[in-house]
Amino acid sequence: MHKEFLMGNEAIALGALAAGVNLAAGYPGTPSTEVLETVAKRNPGNVYVEWSINEKAAMEVAAGAAYSGARVLVTMKQVGLNVAADPLMSLEYIGVEGGMVILVADDPGPISSQTEQDTRTFGAYSKVPVFDPCSVEEAYTMIGEAFDFSEKYKTPVFFRPTTRIDHGYASVDVHDPEEYRTHPMKGFEKDPSRWVIFPRLSVKNHALIEKRNAELSDTFSDYDRNCILPEKDGSLRKGIATQGISFMYTQDSPGIEKTRIFRVATPFPFPEKLALTFLEGLDEVLCIEELDPVIERALTYVCGKYRLPVKILGKLTGHLPPSGENSREITAAAISHFTGRKTEERVLPAPPPLPVRPPVLCAGCPHRASFYIVKMAMKGKKTIYCGDIGCYTLGNAAPLDMCDTCLCMGAGLGIAQGVGHMDPETHCFAFVGDSTFFASGITGTINAFYNQANMTLVILDNSTTAMTGHQPHPGTGRTIMGDIVARVSMEKILEAIGLTTVEVLDPLDYEQSVEAVRRIDALPGVKAVIFRSPCIAISKPGGKSVVDADQCIGCKKCINQLGCPALVLDETGSKVRIDAGQCTGCTLCEQICPAAAIHGGLKNDTQERRTRS
Hints:
Helix content is 37%, strand content 17%. It is of the alpha/beta class. The protein has four domains: 214 residues, Thiamin diphosphate (ThDP)-binding fold, Pyr/PP domains (Rossmann fold); 113 residues, Rossmann fold, CATH 3.40.50; 167 residues, Rossmann fold; 70 residues, Alpha-Beta Plaits.
């Protein structure tokens, strides 16, 4: 073994490799993305790795491998679990042969997500056991244990790190590649009575699942990561029940010497027998957890079941915030109040004001040009712009104001159809990214065509999955394992569906694109525009635009209409200058300047730039 300084996601990936994982599949989504990337990067050569087109596909690919006896890892963030829920709910009834760990990275806050979902709650709902690591170091070891439990009980299991563990760093003892476990696979054995789900099989297996989970509750009571600290102190009258990163915050908080601590590493099935040992002799317990009151409800149930006179406090009683992530400060304050410890008020100097940095599209981002083109083309018309999940969600910010709705991946297509069916006078646009189109946009497009919607689909093709770190997708012609494959053509997919108007436009050719959008919008039925220009992080146009101060008339149109961070006011505040450190020379500002005062950017040539990329 040797030591490495690792991000939590890297530690999880190396732990899976050490445990003998045979296949890893997933869909990128912060905070989970680096797990699959690390598996691919550190692949000893015998692990199959793929970015699937969405989480449902990843779950099904992994299920097939697990049926064959392989150890499989599926990765996603918490909202991705919603996409994968359909196969998962049935898969739990079917079971697996090889160990199957479903890593779902929860995002308390949320820092980069639409929702604050708690996978522990989903575990109880789906009857899938849950492992909840509390540190980077533990995550490395625990994922191997999760594979062992999964294989022994022939069930998929959840592995639920949160953002502070996924993106935390620690020095970890890791195995050398030659020490990795080798997991043999026996291959798929035909047995329709096991692998083909029918109501009769589901009824039988449901009973077996309930029996198994009751046994697991007892097994987890003996699992050493579920623990009571201190082990032998019957004089304590107060207790703290906690989990995950909140357990680490609790250990760092003053006043815990007056309490008995119960760390819950497997929230489902809940370790009931160990909980009874913890509750013995206590008067009250404070539950500190993220996000749902899972432990609080479980302990309340145990107290009721066994008629224990213990008061259970937590989120449900207002002793901790009902939402958002915990912190050392929140945890310490709750513990101090719970234990009656007096805290010294320290008067600290006021911190300096932080600069306001709202999320914004990068300087030179082709999405800014695409949004602006559509906005100008539809000026004066009653229009709805339905957005989606990705960099282009930032199109909602002023001055673009081009995102009227945003729900989940692919939903913009359906929402645009619904609005259009109810209000035919509204011009309906649905924006979707290239990766998202493959993940969840095709179904909505078929629905629109089949049900004769009148709308315009706008695909923002920047040749990558940009927001999560520039992962490849079917339209890039590359895989996560570095293979060069045939690109999947969005144009051909759209034409095969039946769309007769599918046009590819260059968003950095302003005037021609505005006229094209006006013409396309006027056509009946479902139309598609593909704005194709690579992300500036993978292909910079080159050159820098500059402002001729003598020619600038100070109208500020470029700043007020584009919102590009490279466009700023000069020291006089009356004219515009360009921050050369941010400008990519995309020429959009040059094309809309009424005084022709901006020049110097590379005259756009999409094909040339794509060739260079």
